[in-house]
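Support request, please re-run this one:
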Amino acid sequence: MIRVVGLLFIALVSCFTLGLKVHANTGIASMVDGLWHDVNSSDFTNGVMILAQDGDQIKMSHYVEYKGVAMVEYGIGTRIGNTVEVDVTVTRPIPGWVVEGKHRLQLSADGTRLEGHYYSSEGSGPLRFQRGGK
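Re-run finished. Output below.
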């Protein structure tokens, strides 16, 4: 009985220690939650993305104007390492654009940029965001 309890204790401590090592890299500087400015190109203005990171889960809300036409989308996804993937739904589409897709973004080494692509049934294109706020 004491041997079983001892083994359980060692297993519990090992799991806790491994868990700390996995999550030790999720300090404030490496978190992606907060305000991000859409800096994709001069065709995109007034763009703001807000990310919420809860562990490896990501929730996203994004507003941007493309050549003066507003677009709003939201999404839910994951973060694995420095890669953020979000399945998005557009609730206020730009006429002729798709209303569902995926964003795949890479966090820069200094934590100030998210860059990558959107993917949809109609193709893909670049995405660029600069960290804003505090």
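The longest strand covers residues 69-80. Residues 2-23 form the longest helix (22 residues).
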